[in-house]
Write a structure and sequence with these properties.
- With about 120 residues, the chain is mainly β.
- About 0% of the residues lie in helices and about 50% in strands.
- It contains no helices and 11 strands.
- The strands form 2 sheets. Strands 2, 4, 5, 6, 9, 10 and 11 form a 7-stranded mixed beta sheet that branches. It has a 4-stranded antiparallel beta sheet with strand order 1-3-8-7, with no helix packed on it.
- The chain is globular.
């Protein structure tokens, strides 16, 4: 599976941004898709995940502000980010897993995209 993240950029605090992750190579609909982020000097952290069934998971820090969704026909997963804060600044990575029982942890994912930079100015 190849994952290509896009849509990052610079936005002011309080603004919105939608990032996308296009998958290719295998049957996308079977995979659990996740978004993680990593800020400079910090560990990679879980942001959101979505199962093939549509069940979603969110980190507490983004719950109510971010929405993960997927379009299986387009092999794409999205992360709509609203009410952005400077602390959301990070490189955002998408990931795919065929079978993880722990969508919130990175080690359960088999495939990773290259990341897209999101910068929120104060």
């Amino acid at each position: 599976v190849q994952l290509q993240a896009s849509g990052g950029g610079l936005v002011q605090a309080g603004g919105s941004l939608r990032i996308s992750c296009a998958a290719s190579g295998r049957t996308f609909s079977n995979f659990i898709m996740g978004w993680f982020r990593q800020a400079p000097g910090k560990e990679r952290e879980f942001v959101a995940a979505i199962r093939w069934s549509g069940m979603t998971y969110y980190a507490d820090s983004v719950k109510g502000r971010f929405t993960i969704s997927r379009d299986n026909a387009k092999n794409t997963v999205y992360l709509q980010m609203n009410s952005l804060k400077p602390e959301d600044t990070a490189v955002y990575f998408c990931a795919a897993s065929s079978s993880t029982s722990s969508p919130r942890v990175p080690f359960g994912y088999d495939y990773w995209g290259q990341g897209t930079q999101v910068t929120v100015s104060s």
